[in-house]
Write the structure tokens for this entry.
Amino acid sequence: MFKQFRTDESGLTLIELTIVIAILGILAAFIAPRVITAIDDARVGKAETEIANLGVALSQYSIDVGTYPSTEEGLNALWRAPSQATLNWDGPYTKSPVTADPWGNPYIYRYPGTHYGYDYDLMSYGKDGKLGGEKLDADIHNWIDEEATLQAK
């Protein structure tokens, strides 16, 4: 009538559990930096893509209006008609307002541009949000930096 309870002593010992936790910790130490680097690389790629897309939108704006937005009007002119709306503004030129880079810093837009052969300057200061820098902190912009290109060769 009464069943005798079995004593099942299978399971993990404290030493086995400690070894498993140590192995997981070692794996996390190797994998986590690579994941974080991949995220930062993706943000750089996103900034490059957004600058290229904003360039297309600025070109369309220029075709319709006859000039690029002024520095004061900024990139918001692609989303909302400037206060001094021109008759030919046919926006919005972007699907959503894009004024901040993937790190949350504002894109820098200047018209007229200061680089030879480019009508406007459009850039992100990169991860650190400061002018200059290397690797992930490097500036991302719409012009080709000829000096850096010559140094790379």
